[in-house]
Amino acid sequence: MSTGPTVPTLDLHARLSARARSMNASAIREILKITQQPDVISFAGGLPAPELFPMQEVRDATLAALDRYGPAALQYSTTEGHPPLREWIGAQAGIPAGNVQIVTGSQQGLDLLGKILIDEGDVVLVEAPTYLGALQSFQPYGPRYVQVPTDEEGIDVEALADLLPGLNAKVLYAVPNFQNPTGRTLSAGRRRRLVELTAQHGVLLIEDDPYGALRFTGEPAPSLYSLGLELHGHPDRNHVIYSSSFSKTLVPGLRDAWVQAAAPVIAKLIQAKQGADLHTPTLNQMIVTELVQDVLPRQIERVRQAYGERAGLMLDRIRADFPQGVQYTTPQGGMFLWLTLPEGVDTQALLPRAVERKVAYVPGSPFYALGGGQNTMRLSYSNATPEQITQGIRALGDTLRGALAE
Ligand code: PMP
């Protein structure tokens, strides 16, 4: 019992900022709650395979970092990031370390980019569908989304060329490699056109590339960032901003990722990050630095191999067990594939029936900034055993057959 003076009960919701009130719970997080029943085979979450985590190597690297740096490994450090890690990333990309900003997960990079680039009402072009987490990051800054059509080869660049004149778009956000959610890859031919088109129209191009290293089939295509570098001739003139992460190649829990950008963008990212968290955890950056030379390439090889096998099996089982009329993407890497069911099938409404059959997926609609895609769904194969894939796809096939028979 309170013994102090009587005070009014605050309406806390009413005191939230308009920005906070514009945020909404991730549809996926809500869905994952339903799908996380213990006996349900879940293709819903986009989790890396934990049995592949390099446990011993991270243990060794942690001790090595503590020995190498002493208390400095546990001290505050610079906002830009651990210099040797920035050097290493810069060397990989052929740019100075000064064009690299370490961030606490590429999710933070997206939030900070939203903060420094998007004013209320700015036109932000996004793929349809796109990564839901980017929509969540940008939303509080008040973008006006315009969806760019996509097909099997990623962004339809000619449709984009028709959209751009007069649009005064600020940013185009794209995931060109093994996109989350579709698993599609932007074809090599379209990349150059996309970079040139956005440059011509003064549109900043955010290339979000957490999966690029995880190609298990097909030929690698140049990054949009590298094409931008070629076009402009200098990293400080590049209109492409590149974001990548160690989450999918090493481990997600260390929250180590980075942004490559021109000096004026980096300068603002530093200021924005200071306000957000001062710096990415020092020890985590040092651990990753210990690992990049030898462990990272081996780990990438392992993960690629495993995900390639899992994707291959999932596609085989889809071909064997799914009814006619279900379209699927064939990813060349990454963690996801995408199903399109005949018009009129609502994958959100279908989910409880799939869960009854002990299988789960993510309905596709939340991945569309402006709605649509009710007949689509995302499947993740990265965190499933062969048995789970075989059983789960059979159960999903039965669910889909039931829905199509109605
Ligand atoms: N971008 C994309 C396209 C993603 O799929 C993810 C992870 N799901 C992220 C960014 C965020 O990754 P992280 O913060 O772990 O680097």
TrEMBL record:
It holds the Pfam family Aminotran_1_2. The keyword Ribosomal protein does not apply. Keywords: Aminotransferase, Pyridoxal phosphate, Transferase. It comes from the Bacteria. Its cofactor is pyridoxal 5'-phosphate. One of its GO terms (molecular function) is transaminase activity. InterPro entries: Aminotransferase_I/II_large, Class-I_PLP-dep_aminotransf, PyrdxlP-dep_Trfase, PyrdxlP-dep_Trfase_major, PyrdxlP-dep_Trfase_small. Residues 56-396 form the Aminotransferase class I/classII large domain. This is PLP-dependent aminotransferase family protein. The lineage of its organism: Bacteria, Thermotogati, Deinococcota, Deinococci, Deinococcales.
